[in-house]
Amino acid sequence: MVTLLFIIFIITPLLEIAILLYVGEIIGLFPTLFIIIATAAAGTFLLRLQGLAILFRLKQSIDRLEPPLKEVFDGACLLIAGLTLLTPGFVTDSIGFLLFIPKVREYLRIFLTKRLNISNIDSFHYSNTPHESSEFSNSKIIDVEYKDIDENINNDKNTD
Hints:
Helices cover 71% and strands 0% of the residues. By secondary structure, it is mainly alpha-helical. It is elongated and about 85 Å long.
């Protein structure tokens, strides 16, 4: 964890500064600034476009009573992509644009599920009826009727 924080907060900014200086020296200051602004604008456009598509898929999953795990993962990837594209630099922009590619997100999801020993989230389904759920498969379901006697007690007290 310390290594990851070191890479994020120390190595990445140093690498970004070095690459920005190098590119600025080759193509000039204003073209470099234009590229930085253009990638931020393109990232905002892609984030809005793909974010709305993921929200639509999320709603469809919920309507089908399926857990929207893939959609939530894609949404998290898009959030990271948007943040990296708003950060000035070519390395973070490359990471951000890669996260906008659905196949890259799919490979990343597969890699993370294997790395974190999570069962395949694409095959995970649940039921909205308790007797089909694995939690209730061995239990007995008892159907009962009841009458609330508190109403009768309160009514009797009011009449006295």
